[in-house]
Amino acid sequence: MPNIATTQGLTSLNCVFLEPDRIELIEERVPEPGPGQILCAAKKSLISTGTELACLKGRFDEGTVWSSWVRYPFYPGYSMAAQVLKTGSDVEGIKAGDRIICPAGHRQYFLADYKEATLIPDSIRDEEAIFTQIAKVALLGVLRAEPAFGERVGVVGLGLIGQLVIQYLNTGGARQIIAIAPESSRLEQARRNGATDLLNLPVAEAFGPVEQLTGGRMLDTIYDVTGSYAVLPYCTQLTRDLGKVILLGDSTEPSKQTIGPKVVFNSVSILGIHGRMMEGFKGWTEADMNGFIFESLRRGKLDVASLITEEASPLEAVSVYSRLAGRKSDLMGVLFDWTQL
């Protein structure tokens, strides 16, 4: 890590998607911090597998958020734990040496708006803190559903966010949590996180088994955390009358997405939620969410350590993304350890 006095002319090794399916590590110069900015050294960063692989693939319908957001060269990542090296003018509450989380990409050194940074409590390790951003997304999904005590719920899409949704539901009084996935390894993780029933099959084949597991009542709420256009029409068939589908994954090809055959007849609600709603949703501020997640981690109410399956050097980025794309189901929480550079 550079000396604070020698940060002028600092260069950073950054992970960049130069174009679809092309990843490179590029060395770029980092300016000195300006007003309201902090200069940071990366410690750990978490790969958001679904989002980042979609950005790497680069195939989006026109008019989607994806098509306007992803412009190459694209800098992936938004879950960073770092140490502050230097602060610019007008920065309050953060000083050199502090550990922070912020929505930065996979970069060795970077500038951040201090208002987007949050101090990491001493009791929370860096590798836990980097889960805060996706833990807030999962929390938003549960808040959007407004669950009642004793509900029967289903979760489709058992990646990091789906697993965290299950943890929240388990501590929130759900009577039954049915995890649905064709990957047995992710189902076992879901069981450890609190799922009461596991269906090792595609969601397209889940109607009969869900009907049997719920005694014909079907689900009060089902969470679609896949981002796949093919999943929604099956989810809407798994709810009871006046049931809810919570969309926590945004399809890159919504032109291929349908809602299913009985949404109106069964009076099903389809409710979307996006991470940009963190400030003010249901009376929560983002600071409230951060504090809640840190406290949940400290008290053992939220477990992210068990979701980590690999720590890699950023120098292995090309190989890591290739393996994620090739056998996504075998890997869960994959993070870059910048201290290895």
UniProtKB/TrEMBL annotation:
Give the Gene3D superfamilies listed for this entry. Medium-chain alcohol dehydrogenases, catalytic domain (3.90.180.10), NAD(P)-binding Rossmann-like Domain (3.40.50.720)
Question: InterPro entries in the record, alphabetically?
Answer: ADH-like_C, GroES-like_sf, NAD(P)-bd_dom_sf
Q: Which cofactor does it need?
A: Zn(2+)
User: Would the keyword Zinc turn up in this protein's UniProt record?
Assistant: yes
Q: Name one Pfam family in it.
A: ADH_zinc_N
Q: Which domain of life is it from?
A: Bacteria
Molecular function (Gene Ontology), one example: oxidoreductase activity
Question: Can you give the residue ranges of the Alcohol dehydrogenase-like C-terminal domain?
Answer: 161-277
Assigned keywords, A-Z? Metal-binding, Oxidoreductase, Zinc
Q: Which PANTHER family match?
A: D-GULOSIDE 3-DEHYDROGENASE, NAD-DEPENDENT ALCOHOL DEHYDROGENASE
Q: Which family does it belong to?
A: Belongs to the zinc-containing alcohol dehydrogenase family.
Q: What is this protein called?
A: Chlorophyll synthesis pathway protein BchC
Species per Swiss-Prot/TrEMBL record: Paenibacillus glacialis
